[in-house]
Amino acid sequence: MTTLNNEQKSLVEGLFKHYKKDELTRSEINDYIVCNQIKNPSWLKSNTYKIARGVYRLPINGDISPVVSEPVSTKTETAPETNTVNQAAYVVSSLTGNIVPTKDPVFVPWGHFKDIKSIVTSKQFYPIFITGLSGNGKTMNVQQACAVTKRECIRVNITIETDEDDLLGGYRLQDGQTVWQNGPVIEAMERGAILLLDEIDLASNKIMCLQPILEGNGVFIKKINKFVKPAPGFNVIATANTKGQGSDDGKFIGTNILNEAFLERFPITVEQAYPTNKIESKILLNVMSEKGLTKDADVKFASNLVTWADIIRKTFYEGGVDEIISTRRLVHIVEAFVIFKNKMKAIEMCTNRFDVDTKTSFMDLYSKVDGGEDVTTWNSPVLDTEEDSNDSEEDNPSY
After folding, report:
1. From residue 114, how far is each of 122, 274, 387 by CA, in Å?
2. pTM across the whole model
3. What HEC string does the chain produce?
């Protein structure tokens, strides 16, 4: 191993003392040298110490000792003590490289996107709870806000089985050695990243391990005797189809009633609606443009799809139908159309998940829309799946 000079030794000791591990990513090294205003160590980020793409091992086995000693007390000669930083386990990170979400070329900002972006940009700790029906862009809005602001985002999909080990970390077997691997929550805290807890209403009471973290405090990891404090910029954003009160209608089976004290840790709740017709049309046209569909007929197809979905949603909110067409499903239909080159087949393939009656009524409705029937004269849009439901309402429900 190459002998290090004093400047290099000092850098390696500082890196190890700061991160408590000897395998560092390029971004971790860069963050350290920026914070400490140190000259870029190109010698360390060379092939000599490279062990994986964007990952480097500190040369601590030769010139550098992995234990950083503190001054020894000399008050008594009978019991000399040496204070050292001892790790209960070899800590490793599973995240390497850039974790900033990629900008989606078809994304169109809508709803509370500006509010979410403002919170993300502020880098303040201000947890958000985002609720809304499936497929309306809750997760995408958060990821694209991070992409636009170039903020790191770690997404965790919550299930009923998610526990403290999944979130905070646990012991893993790596190269025949038992090591401690940080969980996504700890990684986000140490990196000052956005922690996106997706479908949080599927969680059990094991999610309560996040209680101190949602208060903006650090968390003590008892298994390795370590206290982790959040770095500046860390924040928590949760998404759910419900407001943490369960699903009475059974549409979101598996969702649970979340602890009230847990929900109180979120200062605001954002109610995410489906995009307006204008925004939704723009989204579909962006998808079509990306897929190479630019003909006038394709533009008309996008307009008809939006009108069709709008009627179904209004009927859904009035209780006339049990299913709904989401923005995500409209995008799926456009993508199916690119493959099959047939509008009705694309719609059929993407509505096969519904029961026969619902699917048939949805298909019939689109045929009417596509045939040019003036749906603007329908005071109360109702589908054929519900009998005796011709009562009209003056106002459409807000969604």
Report:
1. 12, 15, 42
2. 0.72
3. CCCCCHHHHHHHHHHHHHHCCCEEEHHHHHHHHHHCCCCCCCCCCCCCCEEECCEEECCCCCCCCCCCECCCCCCCCCCCCCCECCCCCCEECCCCCCCCCCCCCCCCCCCCHHHHHHHHHHCCCCCEEEECCCCCCHHHHHHHHHHHHCCCEEEEECCCCCCHHHHHEEEEEECCEEEEEECHHHHHHHHCCEEEEECHHHCCHHHHHHHHHHCCCCEEECCCCEEECCCCCCEEEEEECCCCECCCCCCCCCCCECCHHHHCCCCEEEECCCCCHHHHHHHHHHHHHHCCCCCHHHHHHHHHHHHHHHHHHHHHHCCCCCCCCCHHHHHHHHHHHHHHCCHHHHHHHHHCCCCHHHHHHHHHHHHHHHCCCCHHHCCCCCCCCCCCCCCCCCCCCCC
Instruction: Output the tens digit of pLDDT for each of the chain's 399 residues.
Output: 457 888 888 888 888 888 888 888 888 888 888 778 788 888 888 888 888 777 888 887 544 444 443 444 444 444 444 443 444 456 877 677 789 999 999 999 999 999 999 999 999 999 999 999 999 999 999 999 999 999 999 999 999 999 999 999 999 988 888 889 999 999 999 999 999 999 999 999 999 999 999 999 899 999 999 999 999 999 999 999 999 988 776 678 788 999 999 999 999 999 999 999 999 999 999 999 999 887 778 889 999 999 999 999 999 999 999 999 999 999 999 999 999 999 999 999 999 999 999 999 999 999 999 998 876 665 444 455 444 333 333 333 333
What is the separation, in whole angstroms, between the first and last Cα of the chain?
65
Angle at alpha carbon of residue 169, lines to 164 and 170, rounded to 5°: 95
Q: Which residues pair with 270 in a beta bridge?
A: 130
Q: Are residues 186 and 92 in contact, defined by beta-carbon separation less than 8 angstroms? A: no
Question: In terms of C-beta density within 10 A (0-12 exposed, 13-18 middle, 19 or more buried), how is residue 229 classed?
Answer: exposed
Cα 266 from chain centroid?
Answer: 17
